[in-house]
Amino acid sequence: MTPPERIDQVIPAIIEHDAVSNHTFEAQRLLREMGVGSEIYARIVGPGCAGRVRPVEELPSTGADRQWLIYQSSIGSPAADVFARHRGHKLLDYHNITPAELVERWIPPLGAEARLGRRQLTQLAPLVAAGFADSAYNAAELTAAGFARTRVVPLLVETANVEAPPDAAVLARLVASKQAGGSDWLFVGQLAPHKAQHDLIKAFACYRRAYDERARLHLVGREMGQTYKDALRRYVASLGLGAAVELTGSVASGTLAAYFAAADVFVCCSEHEGFCAPVVEAMHRRVPVVAIARAALPETVGNGGVLLEERDPVLVAAAVHTVLATPGAREMLVEAGAIQAAKYGLESARSAFREVIRAELAAAP
Amino acid sequence: MRHLRSRPAVSGDRPSPPSELARAATAEARRLRADGVVTAAFERDLDERFELAASRALRVPALAERSARLRRVAKGVVPERARPPLRRLVRVLDVLARRGFELVESKVRRT
Predict the structure, then answer these.
(1) Is the ipTM beyond the 0.90 threshold?
(2) Could you name the CATH architecture of A6-156+345-363?
(3) In angstroms, rounded to a whole number, what is the distance separating the alpha carbons of residues A218 and A213?
(4) Residues B58, B51 contacting (CB under 8 angstroms)
(5) How far apart are alpha carbons A41 and A14 in whole angstroms?
(6) What is the pTM of this model?
(7) Does A6-156+345-363 match A160-342 in CATH topology?
(8) A151: phi then psi, degrees, rounded to nearest 5
(9) Which pLDDT tens digit goes with each residue over A163-206?
């Protein structure tokens, strides 16, 4: 068939410092390099993205053979209805929808949106030619939702984010705090109940009790709703860990790089992750990873980090100690992590993305 | 003590070094509990403190919503100009809700 003039993307919300948003921008860049026009249409456009993204209400319709659409799916949204009604040839890129039961206690509207997202996924299945997923875990969910054809396409992570040099002032502050001793734990991700930072704080409290009362924990990421963040702050205060646990909020790329540079270990206690880009970034930046084997994490971490089967704070504390105290363990994990991260390198992800787009173009009627 | 185990190795494969570290961590966690370094009481306290923090954090938006509802009720029942004490009460309710205090709706209505 004649290649389409445009392959536009539709996304519920696009914001800065967000893996799915970064993936969408990178996909746009690749589509344009492949010679097709490509715009991004979003229901919600966050600060810093204005001018690069258009409102979904402005999505043009130029006919199925001339315009294709890719829907970036990660939450329920009226944008999915706009996508469903459109006449264009449809593809869907799935980044997972957090199970509602993990978030609705804290953010009831988000629980409702998650349930809507799952319903919309099922409704979109017969309308979409193929579903892309950034992990085999997510591809299995697409199949369960009724998608006949699925392909795993790694997340496209913007090079600028991963390769940013550390902010000198932030790094100096973090290094200075090391002078007093104690290791630095790091987790990067939204403060969100399904990422279970409360379990991470429990593990950290066990670690301080058992091994190192000077250890520090840095939780980097903006909050997903005020209530869970408030609970974490109250919890930290209740444990007397106010000076040891830092909730940074959203940070710039250089600041994030400084946290990675100063970290002794990256610890992930998430209950649910569809991929977990920060784990890959930790491995890429040569920070050893300890993670609980939930959802897509066994696949993302692979043999590049320590995977724990049990959700047990004592086990997490013991694993961090084992990594930091066993001679050669840290170095071995760093090497293993670098090998695993290379599988998710931007160039290979770009190649995979181009390849699936070309395959879809060849397969289209 | 909870049953602890590391990620099972695939039959016939040599365990990868990370999985060996996971096994070592499992043994170390057992030791921490067996030696009483981390006691059941300590773990229970960790859980209870989080539940308490969670319940207090969750109560704030619930009270804010209740306060807003009361304000709507009060404004609907009594014209603001006619009942300044009631308006003051609504303001107090707002402050209390923000500070996380428990309120009893029926008593407010009687007032």
Answers:
(1) no
(2) 3-Layer(aba) Sandwich (3.40)
(3) 15
(4) no
(5) 9
(6) 0.82
(7) yes
(8) -140, 140
(9) 789 999 999 999 999 999 999 999 999 999 999 999 999 999 99
- CA–CA distances in Å: residue B80 to residues A25, A198, A334, B83: 52, 44, 67, 6
- B5-12, long-range: CB < 8 A, 24+ apart: B5/A309, B5/A310, B6/A308, B6/A309, B7/A293, B7/A298, B7/A307, B7/A308, B7/A309
Q: Report the half-sphere exposure of A204 (CA within 13 A, side-chain side).
A: 32
Q: Do A319 and B4 touch (CB under 8 A)?
A: no
Dist. CA A68–CA A129, nearest whole Å: 11
Which chain B residues touch A238 with a CB distance below 8 Å?
49, 52-53
> For residues B107 and B96, what is the distance between their CA atoms, to the nearest angstrom?
15
Task: Choose between B89 and A246: higher pLDDT.
Answer: A246
Task: Out of B2, B18, B52, name the one closest to residue A307 (CB).
Answer: B18
Which CATH superfamily, name and number, covers A160-342? Answer: Glycogen Phosphorylase B; (3.40.50.2000)
What residue ranges do the domains of chain A occupy?
6-156+345-363, 160-342
- Nearest C-alpha in A relative to B46: A202
